[in-house]
Amino acid sequence: MQNRLALTATVDREDALRYTPAGLPVLEMWLKHQSRQTAYGFDRDVACEIQAVLIGEEARKFSGKLAGNTVNLTGFLSQRSLRNPRLVLNIEYVEFVKG
Amino acid sequence: MQNRLALTATVDREDALRYTPAGLPVLEMWLKHQSRQTAYGFDRDVACEIQAVLIGEEARKFSGKLAGNTVNLTGFLSQRSLRNPRLVLNIEYVEFVKG
């Protein structure tokens, strides 16, 4: 069962680091993506916004350093919660895009 | 600028084939995904729903054949329209998952 998104995006906003009841660091952020995609034989400007979450040691490492930066992300999509169907990218890998 | 989603999903609902003003066949569908992902050292049940669109000859080829089936899809994410920020998967490749 595949579920893998690779996205280059700018971190528009980054929350303060928080912790789960079990003590895991959690960093939530909001991403903006813009690119040009070739689809069906013609070029197209593509834009989207998506919420993303980083959990664990990486969350602590990147906290406070992401907002305003462009990053390459990979991870999987899930709905926000049982009651909220909004899509969230669960980040498994993040790296800064060199400017 | 990366923007690539690979997703295994069940086609919950499929619209009737329609055509753009330029005559391109368009097939819209609604996907349901469920899987188990290993993240941050533990397994997690993941679910999401996303709208998807297939354009061109493949739309004609798959029209009427997708609903109820499980498929592997790859494509890119965009917002639905300038005014509607909802995420849509623009399908570039689709194949049936053998049952």
Describe the protein in words.
Chains A, B: One of its GO terms (cellular component) is primosome complex. Chains A, B: It comes from Chromobacterium haemolyticum. Chains A, B: One of its GO terms (molecular function) is single-stranded DNA binding. Two copies of one chain form a homodimer. Chain A has one helix spanning 57-62; strands at residues 3-14, 18-19, 25-39, 42-55, 70-79, 87-96. Chain A is mainly beta and 99 residues long. The first copy, chain A, has one domain (5-96): Nucleic acid-binding proteins (OB fold (Dihydrolipoamide Acetyltransferase, E2P), Beta Barrel). In chain A, a hairpin with a 5-residue loop joins strand 2 (18-19) and strand 3. At the A-B interface, strand 1, strand 3, strand 4, strand 5 and strand 6 of A face strand 1, strand 3, strand 4, strand 5 and strand 6 of B. Strand 1 of chain A pairs antiparallel with strand 1 (3-14) of chain B.
Keywords summarizing the entry:
6 strands; 99 residues; 5-stranded mixed beta barrel; OB fold (Dihydrolipoamide Acetyltransferase, E2P); homodimer; 6% helix; 1 helix; mainly beta
Describe the protein's topology:
Two copies of one chain form a homodimer.
Chain A: E1 3-14, E2 18-19, E3 25-39, E4 42-55, H1 57-62, E5 70-79, E6 87-96
